[in-house]
Amino acid sequence: MKILSGIQPSGQLHIGNYFGMMQTMIAHMESDELYVFIVDLHALTSVRERDRLAGGTLEAAADFLALGLDPDKCTFWVQSDVPEVCELTWVLSTIAPMGLIERCTSYKDKVAKGLSSSHGLFSYPVLMAADILLYQAEQVPVGKDQKQHLEVARDLAIKFNNEYGQTFVVPEPAINESTAIVPGLDGQKMSKSYGNTLPIFLEGKELKKRVMAIATDATPVEEPKNPHTCSLYKIMKLFATSVRMAEIHNLYVNGGAAYGYLKLELLDLLNDTFGAARQKKAELLSDPVMLRAILARGRDKARAKAMVTLDLVRDRVGLRY
Ligand code: ADP
Ligand code: TRP
Questions:
Q1: CATH code for position 20
Q2: Which residue's C-alpha comes closest to atom 7 of ligand 1?
Q3: Shortest-distance ligand to the CA of residue 10
Q4: How remote is the CA of residue 219 from the centroid of ligand 2, in Å?
Q5: pTM for this entry
Q6: Enclosing domain of residue 116
Q7: Any idea what the CATH number is for the domain that residue 256 is in?
Q8: Is 5 touching ligand 2 by the criterion CB < 6 Å?
Q9: Which string of b and e fits 270-288 if b means at least 16 CB within 10 Å?
Q10: d(CA 161, ligand 2 centre) in Å
């Protein structure tokens, strides 16, 4: 199966990114044809500082590799290194109905959160469709927030195929229901742009401060609490064993759950889960020449695939004379 997904280098990657997408992608490495990329063109819709975008791209590459992605077992590259994606975006935008793109909620949500509105931010889903269709991906693992964008990609693939003849694979979203929306410190969806994250690679006091800031209610320790409305409980569930979670569930429903202690337990779990990857990331970042060489190899592999699809598209629509 051809599996593809991308991540924006727009800030420190967090446990929502990890459980929503990265972990699933890494798990497919042995068994599937895997495409993983860093979507810097998408990040340009929100990151306007040159060094933050460039540095973030290299850092996101180090994140994936430190977490276990093997670039020899997949195609791993930076989106803007394959310029064919921009041409396909244009072709797709000529068939994308305005209403389809206007219905996408992420544009309105981002503007409501303070991002400046731009044509790039508005047409973000068309670039994402081009990302997916260019590589003829069959399955796209994402968090639930991206479901609507996947529908746009599917609609555009179907429309193009109907108008010009069979060209694109129609991709399927792969959303893991148990990790579809990882809550942030404030209980909203965890997101780099909401400043409510537990970054995978944060350490020491900084990480402790974030964990302690997870919003909990004021119910006294001995009183029963509702685990299903508690972000701390939902986050712990991602890390603790099922035996420990059964004990914690019991403390919630029968009384005895002390938020402060549970937060310290979560802090230990975070450190145990990501400790080794943090060290590996530091090593990788100390050798940017090697990181760039890995990404250049990925670019060449990705570009070869992209050119085949784009050639076909040009021929289908008449950009060939
Ligand atoms: P962010 O919202 O933090 O900027 P991205 O848009 O870069 O994250 O998302 C990268 C991947 O991580 C996407 O597949 C997205 O669906 C997933 N993801 C992001 N936040 C979460 C979350 N809180 N829960 C589950 N998946 C998430
Ligand atoms: N829009 C996605 C996000 O914000 C990132 C993305 C861009 C993507 N292109 C993609 C995800 C293609 C999957 C496939 O998370």
A1: 3.40.50.620
A2: 8
A3: 1
A4: 39
A5: 0.93
A6: 2-181+287-317
A7: 1.10.240.10
A8: yes
A9: beeebeebeebbeebbeee
A10: 22
